[in-house]
Each structure stands twice: as C-alpha cells, then as structure tokens.
C-alpha cells in the first residue's frame, strides 16, 4: 500500500498547479491513496502537514510526500517506492530539480512534455517529493514543526537525516518539475526565526549524538 501525502491549503495562485499534481498521481499511481493534508496551525506549516500525513500510517507503509506544485517522473518514483520499503532511508526520486517558472508552466499546459519545457535548474534541492517508509521517517524525527511559513524545513531535515541515519537521503536518477505560482514572501520575523533554527541544526550536525539530543531531547 502506498499513500500519497499532499500538504495543501488553498491559495488562488496555487489551485491550477495543485489540480495538475493531484490528477497526475491519480493516473500514475492508480492503486495509491491520495490524501491532502493541512494542519491546525494558523500559519501554513509544511513540516507539520508532512508529519501528520505519515503519522496516520503503520510503520511498514510507504508514503510519497509531494509538494502540491511539483511533479516527479513515474519511473524514478516507482524505483524510489520499491527501494524505500526496505532501505530504512528516505528517497528522493530525482537528481535534477527543474523550476519551470511562468514560461515553462505555460508550455506544459499547452502540451509540451515536461522534459522539454523551459526551466531553471535548482542546485542542491532536497524537497519537492520524498518517498519513505513510515518507520524511516520517524527514525530521524521527521521534520521540525517549529519551521512555520516558508523556508529551511527541508534543509534542516536533510541534515538530521544525514547525521542520524549515517547517510544522505538516497537519490534516483530523474527529474522533478515545479510548476509556477505566486512566490511566497521569504522575509520578516517568522522567516528570521526559521533561519535561526536552521543554524541550530547546522551546529547540531557535528555528531549523531548532538543531533539526537537536539531532535529528540535525549
């Protein structure tokens, strides 16, 4: 059984991308349970949504945690799902993250294959689509729900996974495609708080012991 978890709080500029992503998963993984997840936090909280989606699953179930604006390729996704069942690690079904922007998204909507749409390559990307057995997500604490709004929760998660599980999330050769929508404001007190929390993750990444104490308090 595979569950697709799509964190989602409706915003006008994001609806078109969300509908494309939802429909893609329904077609690409017809036997999967596709769920949209929001959290009670008045500020949209991606980390909390992702954790809530996994919390509903038994340890041996596999989750595809996808951003509501991001499409993977089917074959790398299937490879990641199969590998995640037994690896004890989180998998990223891509080695290239393509942000399509306004022009690339319009090309895709007009029928151009995603692989041929205009894009900006996002180097070092570690979000968009995660594939994990529920027990693997829990083993390194999932994502830190103190990251509210936008920014840093994925980079902090990557450090926690790498430090606590002894290796970076495992990648599969392929691409993901982020569709255009209105950009979020990445400034202000909450963004600054996220940046400060990210620095604490960097400080804790010196050892598994330090990270375990920081993430789990033990």
Structure in words:
It is a single chain. The protein has helices spanning 15-28, 46-55, 74-87, 101-109, 134-139, 153-165, 189-204, 208-216; strands at residues 2-7, 33-37, 62-66, 70-72, 91-92, 96-100, 120-121, 129-133, 170-171, 175-179. With 218 residues, it is of the alpha/beta class. The strands form 3 sheets. Strands 2-1-3-8 form a 4-stranded mixed beta sheet. The two termini are 33 Å apart.
The tally of strands reads 10
Uncertain regions spanning at least 5 consecutive residues: none
List the strand order in the largest sheet.
2-1-3-8
* SS-derived structural category: alpha/beta
**Mean pLDDT over the full residue set:** 96
Tally of alpha and pi helices: 8
Strand content: 15-25%
| Rg, Cα atoms, Å | 17 Å
Distance between the termini: 33 Å
Please give the share of residues in helix.
40-55%
The secondary-structure element order is EHEHEEHEEHEEHHEEHH
Shape: globular
| Sheet having the most strands | 4 strands, mixed
Topology:
Blueprint (H helix, E strand, L loop, with lengths): L1 E6 L7 H14 L4 E5 L8 H10 L6 E5 L3 E3 L1 H14 L3 E2 L3 E5 H9 L10 E2 L7 E5 H6 L13 H13 L4 E2 L3 E5 L9 H16 L3 H9 L2
Parallel strand pairs: 1-2, 1-3, 5-9, 6-10
Antiparallel strand pairs: 3-8, 4-10, 6-7
Helix pairs in contact: 6-7, 6-8
Summarize the structure.
Helix content is 42%, strand content 18%.
Descriptive key words:
4-stranded mixed beta sheet; single chain; alpha/beta; 218 residues
